[in-house]
Specification:
Layout: H1 3-21, H2 32-44
């Protein structure tokens, strides 16, 4: 296994742990905002433990042209 792959797996694992500690997986309401917030929390990884608290809002997404 390459070192970069191992670092990525550990990074995402720490992000998943942070999302779990914030109870983001246990919320029954599944919508774009919740899914995006969980994804960004996982991508932030260890940065969550130094104060980063990512939140995403999907309601302001641009609409496709018709």
């Amino acid at each position: 296994m390459h070192l970069g792959t191992l670092v990525l797996i550990v990074w995402l694992g720490i992000g998943a742990l942070a999302a779990g500690q914030r109870h983001e997986f246990s919320d029954v309401t599944r919508n774009c905002n919740m899914a995006a917030t969980v994804g960004v929390t996982m991508l932030a990884g260890p940065l969550n433990y130094i104060g980063l608290n990512p939140k995403i809002s999907c309601r302001d997404l641009p609409r496709p042209s018709e």
